[in-house]
Amino acid sequence: MPPLSLITVAALLPDEWEFRLRDRNIEPVTEDDWEWADLVMMSGMLAQKEDFMGQIREARRRGKKVVVGGPYATSLPNEFLDEGVDYLVLDEGENTIPMFLEALENGETSGIYRSKDKPEVTGTPVPRYELLDMDAYFLMAIQYSRGCPFRCEFCDIIVLYGRKPRTKVAGQVSAELDRLKELGWKGGIFFVDDNFIGNKRTVKPFLRDLIKWQETNGYPFSFTTEASIDMAHDDELLELMTLAKFSTVFIGIETPDTESLALTLKHQNNRQPMNESIEKIAR
């Protein structure tokens, strides 16, 4: 999948800025890229630490200003301060990117920008999918919601994004699907939500709108997502997801040991036998 975070950040930055996107999962950063860049903006996850830090050091060696954000930096900002990053744009970009832009406008040469508030995602723009080398990916990525209502003690999602899932409106997602179709994408799409069904109040109306979009456009896409196992308790939800052409759902089972699940506060997996839930979802 492509780096949805970076193309979303690009959409939140000024229209007059020029971008080159380099995804280190699929391509190198060339000498020409380094010479071209005025500002180097990076994001990544803990599993990418070695290369992430290496790219920061290379940028600094070349005298480039470095901006870092994303979940890893938000969780462990001191690791990036130790590497000499100039700007840390932490938490969720809808709130902190405007702070960063104002600082740049004011001539500030470094800073840390944070916000405890969780932004509504109804104002998030269509990601800059055109920056991607779309032939390099197996799935495209799209986001409908952020956050999860559960309390699993091992998960950092509720720390980063909260327990009140915030959702886009159907028109936003339709615009993103329209853009992917316009760019010629014909493969599957992964809804990268932390828990796609986390907001039960909004997900069913959203799915009905998604079904209409699929019908109108001739079902060009199939969908994959992540969701909690309690989706098995809701026949209407399963039917709507099937009609919308969801083909695969990743479910966090963690362990068949019910005592361990209770200990880690993953109570939703204990409400009915997990094998029965999995079989029902698969059917």
Structure notes:
With 283 residues, the chain is an alpha/beta fold. Helices cover 39% and strands 13% of the residues. The chain is built from twelve helices and ten strands. A four-stranded parallel sheet has the order 1-2-3-4, with helices on both faces.
Quick tags:
10 strands, 283 residues, alpha/beta, four-stranded parallel beta sheet, 12 helices, 39% helix
Instruction: Please identify the structural class as seen in this structure.
Output: alpha/beta
β-sheet strand percentage: 5-15%
- Main sheet attributes: strand count, strand direction, barrel closure: 4 strands, parallel
Helix and strand element order: HHEHEHHEHEEEHEHEHEHEHH
Span from first to last CA? 27 Å
Mean pLDDT: 95
Q: Given the C-alpha coordinates, what overall shape results?
A: globular
How many helices? The count is 12
**Strand neighbour order, sheet with most strands:** 1-2-3-4
Multimerization status: single chain
- Contiguous low-pLDDT stretches (5 residues minimum) are none
Q: Radius of gyration, Cα only, in angstroms?
A: 20 Å
How many strands appear in the DSSP assignment?
10
What percentage of residues falls in helices of 4 or more residues? 25-40%
